[in-house]
Specification:
The protein contains seven helices and seven strands. The chain is of the alpha+beta class and about 260 residues long. The protein has one domain. Strands 2-1-3-7-6-5-4 form a seven-stranded mixed β-sheet.
Length: about 260
């Protein structure tokens, strides 16, 4: 689906195809993707993996397009729908921006742009503001998701001291799997965000040191949480193993004495 916006004077208004400077594309409609590729002469591989959790974050200049020196910037957002599998919660978000046009591509279930406008409309003057505040919100989503995961880890820690039931072992495996996805996604993403934050032209146009500081702070916080939680899960896995070994030893002693 195409959504057209007009951004001017710290106000973002829904507009039409005849008068817009921000185009938001959501979903995987191949006809819409084809239209976008042809209209702006974009690279054919832009939408490959655009809705897959294994999509990689990236920052690159696009060449030989109909746009004015466009830059492509892709991050992976984390949905708040905790009931979904981690693969379904990881949602790629792509920005293609020039000095006079911004194109944003999101998954059909993403609410990032809606919330961005609701929360930061008055803060937005340039495309760089949209890119930066979106980055900030994405890292906030990871921090909130990791805080929820910490509750699961605490429950597993308690269970590891009391039981070796299959249910808890399956929960441990699922949580470890989720953490692997988050770890690799954030490590890859941090490199891309760092490159953006090192671009003098971007920083000059953004002109918001406090926002840059907040983004970097959330980056560090999210990465530290992932590192600590993976270590905790490894420790909990060891507790489960020790409990099973202990139970097995008791069983063998009982059988030997029978």
């Amino acid at each position: 689906m195409f959504q057209y916006y007009k951004m001017e004077d710290r106000k973002i208004s829904k507009s039409s195809e005849e008068d817009y400077n921000w185009l938001v594309v959501s979903g995987t409609d191949p006809e819409e993707q084809r239209h976008l590729l042809d209209k702006y002469q974009l690279p054919e591989d832009i939408f490959i993996g655009a809705n897959e959790p294994e999509e990689v974050s990236r920052l690159e200049y696009l060449r030989n397009t109909k746009l004015n020196h466009p830059i492509l910037y892709t991050l992976i957002d984390l949905s708040e729908v905790t009931e979904d599998r981690i693969e379904d919660r990881l949602e790629p978000v792509t920005f293609i921006y020039t000095k006079d046009l911004l194109i944003t591509y999101v998954s059909h279930q993403s609410n990032l742009i809606k919330r961005l406008i609701e929360k930061h409309e008055q803060d937005i003057q340039r495309y760089e503001d949209i890119v930066a505040y979106s980055t900030l919100m994405i890292y906030t989503h990871y921090i909130k998701g990791l805080q929820e995961m910490k509750k699961q880890i605490d429950d597993l820690d308690q269970a590891a001291r009391k039981t070796t039931e299959n249910k808890e072992l399956f929960n441990l495996a699922d949580t470890e799997r989720d953490m692997v996805y988050l770890d690799h996604t954030l490590r890859d993403q941090n490199h891309t965000v760092d490159r953006l934050m090192d671009r003098k032209e971007f920083l000059d146009r953004l002109d918001n040191e406090a926002l840059v500081y907040d983004i970097k702070l959330r980056q560090k916080f999210a990465m530290k949480m992932v590192t600590i939680y993976r270590d905790l899960l490894e420790t909990i896995g060891g507790l489960f193993s020790d409990m099973m070994d202990n139970n097995l030893n008791h069983l063998m002693k009982y059988l030997d004495s029978a």
